[in-house]
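Lab notebook page, bench 4
Experiment: in silico fold of construct C2
Operator: M.H.
Input chain length: 484 residues
Purpose: comparison with the prior construct
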Amino acid sequence: MPDTSATPSPGLIEALGNLLGPRGLLTAPEDLAPHLSDWRALYRGATPCVVRPADTAELAAAVKLCAAAGVAMVPQGGNTSMVGGAVPDETGRQVVVSLARLNRIRALDPVDLTMTAEAGVVLKAAQVAAAEAGCLFPLSLGAEGTATIGGVLSTNAGGNTTVRYGNARELMLGLEVVLPDGQVWDGLRRLRKDNTGYALRHLFVGAEGTLGFITAAVLRMYPRPRDTALAFCAVADEDSALALFRRFRDRDESAVRAFEYMSGTGVDFCLRHIEGVTLPVSTRADHYVLVDLASPRPDAALRDMAEALLAEAMEAGEVLDAVLAESEAQAQKLWKIREEHPEAQKREGASVKNDVSVPVSRVPEMIRRCSEALVRMIPGSRPVPFGHIGDGNIHMNLEQPPGMDAGAFLARSHDIMDCVNDIVREMDGSFSAEHGIGRLKTDMMPAWRGGAELDAMQRIKAALDPWGLMNPGKVFPAGGNHRA
């Protein structure tokens, strides 16, 4: 009977090496290092080896070896998790399984508007492949040059275009999955309608690798945009940002591809730390928004619509200043201000990140209440709210006070998260909108998802992974993802 506390033995590592070959197994410390720490450097784990299968069959065989030995496995894609979801723990007993070599696009059909991509395909590569076929794969986020298809599905990533196209889940039609015992489930169906019992594919999306390895997916594409418009706006306050969103949504909801809010503090950090970033409007403000419009219709006249709505908003006092991109290069520069927020905060100093969501109508209230409460808690700290105001998801981040010791500030991380979460909970929101639970937020699950909901999740986990070998220590609170 497997023992989930088993340490990978020399015999297991040798067997994995024989199965996968020299490219498929990493054991040298310098090769292991990039796989042991998360992007935010919150956690650093240990492992005796990194498994790198070349295809689904190799992965299934490797999983069978690990399962028979009772050795836990940690799936890893681009390792861009914000919550420590893809790194091993410190015991050295967990094997990291990198899907990076499963990086082929197996099929692309511009009639069906589907792409079948393996888990290791980088998100940017999927976008490019769709564009080369005259289509659009719309999932877009700051880490798209590193994040992989398997990772964004395992975390149900959101990103910038959720307001128009939904999260990763809405862009997935079918999956191929290696289960914790090494069985392969082939659910790569390109069907829009398939009402045949439980929709198993949805169990694995958002499960953060705790139920199995996503190895490939059928993804939805869309007709490519033929008319676009992008505006960067200085707005009077949070309510004005929401009012502007409503103007665009009410005029043509299908044209709003992204609608992003940024605080003046966050934009100032980008101006200070990110090369090539300049303020595109003449008015410096405490609040900004980025409005991204797109349509497959070449005659959509989106620029005319944007100019008219911005003029109305200026007359109403909602917009203080605005600029419309005149070229694709300028559009990329405007988007850079928004996309570089995480990096700019990192360079400014220590920050605590809160990925929360509330009903769209309550976003301005949430930003104000959380900002005021955080500054009361830690005088001199700097709230840096930014994100997807159009779908209610704001990254309610807090930057350390100037001059404060970074370690002392980060020691208050859970106090800061609790402060934000208490307010968000009062507003019927969520403590994890798009980043997931990972290792960072497992202790919050009982309070937020306890009772019947958490019990059902644990029963599903026990049914598919009775020995707790898949990404242990993630998603479930301590003691909640062990053997049944």
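Observations: Residues 274 and 343 are 8 Å apart (CA to CA). The chain has 17 helices and 19 strands.
Next step: discuss at group meeting.
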